[in-house]
Write a structure and sequence with these properties.
- The structure is a homodimer.
- Chain A folds into two domains: 152 residues, Medium-chain alcohol dehydrogenases, catalytic domain (Quinone Oxidoreductase, Chain A, domain 1), CATH 3.90.180; 151 residues, NAD(P)-binding Rossmann-like Domain (Rossmann fold, 3-Layer(aba) Sandwich), CATH 3.40.50.720.
- The first copy, chain A, contains nine helices and 16 strands.
- In chain A, strands 3, 4, 5, 6, 7, 15 and 16 form a seven-stranded mixed beta sheet that branches. In chain A, strands 10-9-8-11-12-14 form a six-stranded parallel beta sheet, sandwiched between helices.
- Chain A is globular.
- In chain A, helix 2 packs across helix 3 and helix 2 packs across helix 8.
- The mean pLDDT of chain A is 96.
- Strand 14 of chain A pairs antiparallel with strand 14 of chain B, so a sheet runs across the interface.
């Protein structure tokens, strides 16, 4: 085991779009696990759009990080030392840990990962927070049923790619917005979406949507917001459900962007627009993960990962989320098991 | 009974704000009731903001009127002739009838009004469509409970004034936006609202709201939309409910207005924003009307009416809705009973 530990800390709050100067890689001593804690060696680190929010000082559902704090996120790692935590050395675990090569955590903050069940990285993707977000957002909020048209933005991402497949399992017609022809091919050819729209290849989102969803939109899973969402709202059918999961197009805005007012569409369609956080469904995580695991095992749900190598690649992996560089779940592999 | 009948017809589609040229008063023969129909003499005619929508050709939840069509709306009138309809001469009835001194309607399209129960004009207000809209929008969509803060726009209008009182009955703190000091006094002194905000006397709706609703907003009943709604969305508490009932600030817009994007507020608060139409609750109208009638009889719900005289005052009464000239329900008295 190395003597030194590399940790990413918040160097300064970003104004608008973060860049490499937002992050500082600090060389530190490997921490000692306190009583009831485990020392975990990071194998995979997750980067997620919601982290942008914690870099700012404003109010949000997540507490902001202080400048100088270690960044935190989903990690899959290996227990290298247990000081009365309920794990053995060599156990694979997942939890919300520092962006670091080594981190300590109390036993109850860690969950065992079974490497026999699925590749361990899936605990950060299809069988982790993004998969659960897709599961509850689709099944509990957007609620597509057979014959419905379901639209998802960020469709080739970690959440959107699963959401669309779950809507297909419910019998819906599924249309996804994504940012390249390669992603559209992934949606249509690999995931079984009925149609993908490359939003970077059209200025007229509404016309593209009218073609791909000629019967209007019954359920909308929004990860992106902005002009694509404006177009979707014009196509909402009576009693449509909109699940507001993310608004990645807004996260780097310094001032609140403006757009067409949409409540008249909500009124005319009697739509329900609902923001949700996956954490609100925590009591049901275990059952949902088991269900997702079955679908992955049976091939009914596919997933893809984009993996960068080395902890020093984490800032670029995070920044790439806002450029749409990933297909499926974006991960950083920090060490081999 | 007069031989001639005066009927308002749609003279032309308004561009932007309607004016008197939108309406044409036509002198016609009094119609003959067909088999199963009644001839009704109009006593009170209701003017409502939703009618603006039917004057335009665009898609909405209500079919647009054709140019030359008689305008239609809620009427309370007296049956002067029954041709096999299930009413007697002299019965007071209400229904969706033409803006006319006399109109025919099939028996099933008319509902008996009991003049002993309450003034007959209330069948168009607190005990009619506006009262029912307030009832279902408050109790089924915005759902304020004890200790919640409930905010309503158009608070001194036919719907808002009832909505706020129903929220008070649920034990909520009630804040209303209205457009004059007289209306604010009506809210606070006559209806028991906790606070009224005269939006015409402030530019900073958000600051006014922070003062009137220091604990944030749990339930919002929106009749107006636009910049006031923008301010309310910044103050939504976790799991807030927004009932989108009307957007009167938008109805005369020729192009869809823009405003700050609000879905990030929906996401951060996990709010639910729901458009609704009172007609969706039709199976429950009878029970709800009975409940409203009890509250009116006991004085727990107060109401006010603004009444203009003569059918020729109907266009101005309608146009005045968009200027906020009414307090409570705006009615046109067409004839004495």
């Amino acid at each position: 085991m190395s003597d030194t530990n590399r940790v990413y800390r918040l160097a300064k709050r970003p104004e608008g779009t973060p860049d490499r100067d937002t992050f500082e890689l600090s060389e530190e001593a490997v921490p000692e696990p306190g009583p009831g804690e485990a020392l975990v060696k990071t194998l995979y680190l997750s980067v997620d759009p919601y982290m942008r929010d914690r870099m700012s000082a404003g109010e949000s559902y997540a507490d902001p990080w202080a400048v100088g704090d270690a960044l935190r996120g989903g990690v899959v790692g290996e227990v290298v030392e247990s000081n009365g935590a309920r794990f053995d050395e060599g156990d694979v675990v997942t939890g919300d840990l520092e962006w670091a090569e080594y981190a300590t955590a109390p036993g109850p903050a860690l969950t065992q990962v079974d490497p026999e069940l699925a590749p361990i990285s899936t605990a950060l993707g299809v069988l982790g927070m993004p998969g659960l977000t897709a599961y509850f957002g689709t099944r509990e909020v957007a609620r597509p049923s057979a014959g419905d048209t379901f639209v998802v933005t960020g469709a080739a991402g970690a959440v959107g790619s699963v959401a669309g497949q779950l809507a297909k399992l419910q019998g819906a017609r599924v249309v996804g917005f994504a940012g390249s022809d390669e992603k559209v091919a992934f949606l249509e050819d690999d995931l079984g979406f009925d149609a993908g729209i490359n939003y970077k290849a059209t200025d007229d989102y509404r016309a593209a949507l009218e073609e791909a969803a000629p019967d209007g939109v019954d359920a909308y899973f929004d990860n992106v917001g902005g002009p694509i969402t404006d177009a979707v709202f014009t196509q909402l059918n009576t009693d449509a459900r909109v699940a507001v999961c993310g608004q990645i197009s807004m996260y780097n805005a310094e001032e609140l962007p403006t757009g067409p007012r949409k409540l008249t569409h909500v009124l005319q369609s009697r739509a329900t627009v609902e923001g949700f956080l996956v954490s609100d469904f925590e009591p049901r995580f275990e059952d949902a993960t088991a269900q997702l695991g079955q679908w992955v095992a049976s091939g009914e749900v596919s997933y893809r990962e984009t993996v960068t190598e080395g902890i020093e690649s984490a800032p670029d992996a995070f920044l790439g989320l806002f450029e749409g560089e990933n297909i499926g779940k974006q991960l950083v592999q920090v060490a081999e098991r």
